[in-house]
Specification:
By secondary structure, the protein is mainly α. It has two domains: 179 residues, no CATH class; 187 residues, Lysozyme, CATH 1.10.530. The protein is 69% helix and 1% strand. It contains 20 helices and two strands. Strands 1-2 form a two-stranded antiparallel ribbon. Strand 1 and strand 2 form a beta hairpin. Helix 10 crosses helix 11, helix 17 packs across helix 18 and helix 18 crosses helix 19. It comes from Dactylosporangium roseum. InterPro entries: Lysozyme-like_dom_sf, Transglycosylase_SLT_dom_1. This is Transglycosylase SLT domain-containing protein.
Length: 452
Amino acid sequence: MHDVEPGLMRLNGEEFGRVVRLIESALPTLTEARSAVQWQADAADLYRARMGEAESLAHELREGFLRASNAVLQYAEALAEAKTEMEIGDAANDGLRELIKEVANTQSKRVRDSEPLSQWEDLRKITSLFDRQVEEDYQDKINKMRVQADSLYYEAAGAYSRVRDIEQNARQIFVAEMHSAFKRLPDFKADSNAAKNIIKRAPGVLAEMNDAGLQNPESRLPGQGFVPRFGVDAPGDMTDFHQDIRDASGSFVVNEPAEWGVADAVHGKYIDPAHEQKYKLAWIRANQELIQGVAYQYGIPAELLAGIIYQEAGGKPPVLDHTADWVRRNTPLGGKDADDTSFGLMGIQVDTAAVALGYDPAHLTDSQRAEIIKSLDEPKESIVIAAKVLADAKDTTDCANTDPKQMTFDQQRELAARYNGGPDWNKEIAQSYADDFANSRTDVNLVLYAPD
């Protein structure tokens, strides 16, 4: 229960609700098409029958998804209630642990290793001659704390019991409702290979589907990423998701303000820091549309993604990343795992990118690693991967279900720290990175939203 995130469950329920609204938006057109088309031919009756079946199919799909949406949302509310009870239980449990700690630490290893509730159950009553001998010297302390300890014990036990009952009862209802919702879905079969081939071969279909997501929030919500390729297998041993990102970014236009080389890095670091700042801001200004579009697709604020670009653009030139990688892979002098090497515009480590792209970072093949680095070296793919890393980080926080437009700057700052530090985001180096992100906020927003 500690790891349960009701917000993510709520997000699933809202996604089912979006499908309901999408079907409802299509139903009038479907009904009109059946009644308005006057087809005089031998196949007219078959046409009307098929259109009627399609309309019936849409109605049944709507009812099934509506029932599923309600079931998931109700279960999410129950989980939120259970989490509140869990917090009450944990607070009482921690208080009991602190209260009885001194006496509990004098007991047997079995008692010392137990949870506070079990420890107090053992301490508050003598269950054997051995217990009497061990606890006799501490009976006065036990008796003095008995009233307070009992109060904490029953408060924690009661809260945990309510957690169990709330979750179990809600789960039973949820499973039954989801089963009922599933039964409402029509039992039909379609040739998925035919659909796949149509989508794959028809020029511009994927681009139009992405555009539809930008125009109609019901057809594709922010944060869902780019439209996948519907089962078209990736070549070699790349993940399908990696190939999806490569395909989607292929149509992007990236405007690089200038090449950033060794001389630029030295000049910006040791002679004129404003030289590097101009490069960073020029990168953002030249790619406003791209940054805003990618951020929308992954459900993160555009200023967050732009702020990360500002942090990472410039700095070490790409040739030094590849040099460091070669040293770490081929000599004992690197001092770090080669997959900790950062590449590209967005300064993403190989292992971080591997996770975002759906690989197992502990078992990367040489070809997979090469493809990851190739994508990180390509600025537009690197920006998409960075957006995915930020979106994944967002999903682990309390703002997982927050509209990007409603995210506070403190929440953005936390995601910047997580981008830099991963699980160590609370450490000084990641917090310093987040401070730099915060300090650049005004400059970044001025160029990100500046008119052309």
